[in-house]
Amino acid sequence: MTDQHTSGALSAAAHAKIMKEYFRTGEKRAYELNNRGPIKFDANGKLDPKILAAYLQHGFYVFEDAISDTELNELRADVERILRRAPISPDSDMDADGRPALGPEFKRYPYRFAKPLSDPLGGTTKNKGRHPVKMLNPEPTDGAPDWTIELLTGNLHLMDSCLRLYGHPGLLAVAEAVIGPDFVPYNEVTFIKEPGLGPSVAWHQDGTTHWDAPDWDQNAHGFNFMAQLYPSTPGNGVWVLPGSQKLGKVDIKNLVEESGSERIEGAVPLVCKSGDVFIVNRQMVHGSFANSSPDRRVTLNAGFFPRRRVLDVTTSQLDGREETYDAEHIFERSRIVGLGIDARQQRFPNEPRYCYQPLADSEKEYRWSEEARHSMLKNYNLKDIYI
Predict the structure, then answer these.
(1) Which of 107, 258, 325, 331 yields a CA-CA distance of 20 to 30 A from 139?
(2) pTM above 0.85?
(3) DSSP annotation of 284
(4) How many CA atoms lie within 13 A of 173 on its CB side?
């Protein structure tokens, strides 16, 4: 295997040069795939079958212009507000303006830091060992901070705009078309890839529970929506191996060995404009490189599972706990979908309102208000589901 690791420090500029041709050819392949366009429905209100077919073939689809400029601006403003309230370092409790930082009021801390341009997961046992290969780690430029924020957790109780996006009728209708009307929430996080700082996320597949199930299929571990607040490029974006969601558990180490470096052959970048939303199968081989580019990426992730893949499943959590997802757990987590639908309806009253079937008989109970913020939404992510 060549140039996966180099002796001596690799500068960010040298890293960008190494990646240039791979980025160019990957981007060309990405745009040659027939899997992008607006969310479209047929005469019966069902998702355009061509969209579903393309998603099933490639493992991802690019929904163009899914987010209006008005909503995009609100999302960006909320993200900036949360970042301004972040502690100045992992061991600080003060923000850059000398105020007490956001975070202690939530039971699950909302900020995750990493060293600039590092690979905190590759080749480690973290995340259940899903990241077997280390990525290239270029040196940040002089004057770079010691830490960069790579992740925000709990989007829906951190940012009202994210709760409203969660109730997007078009995206929820897509979820229903892909995995059924009783789809179950996973979690919601924000990926931050600052230019010249954003760390890599080593190649991996998200699913951990159902690989050996006798009825395994390509939807066994669900999917993620990935809303892009800024353009997603080869340098700052996620890369995927099209079709790999159908292959079962993939030997990623072998893929890297065969490719001669961590630049896996046949992979393509998720490229799009701001306001576009990807749907990405969680079983796909995917990852991202250190962001040595001048372009920022902010991605809002929200995932969903088929209910039958979650109900009464027992699995170990990232903190080592065992948890069983019984009907009550699923209900508690799923009711946040109803809250998001109502929050969106209040903000965008002229949009159609999506009807989420698991809550259809009690829809009126899920009304967005300040009381609901404290009684139902705060710390909702303690009920996140991982399979």
Answers:
(1) 258
(2) yes
(3) S
(4) 19
* Single-letter residue type at 146: D
What is the chain's pLDDT, residue by residue, as a tens digit (387 residues)? 334 443 347 898 899 889 999 999 999 999 999 999 999 999 888 999 999 999 999 999 999 999 999 999 999 999 999 999 999 999 999 999 999 999 999 999 999 999 999 999 998 988 888 899 999 999 999 999 999 999 999 999 999 999 999 999 999 999 999 999 999 999 999 999 999 999 999 999 998 899 999 999 999 999 999 999 999 999 999 999 999 999 999 999 999 999 999 999 999 999 999 999 999 999 999 999 999 999 999 999 999 999 999 999 998 876 777 899 999 999 999 999 999 999 999 999 999 999 999 999 888 899 999 999 999 999 999 999 999
- Joined together, the tokens standing for residue 365 give 């109970």
Among candidates 5, 248, 20, 297, which has minimal Cα distance to 122? 5
**How many residues in total does the chain contain?**
387
Beta bridge partners of 97: none
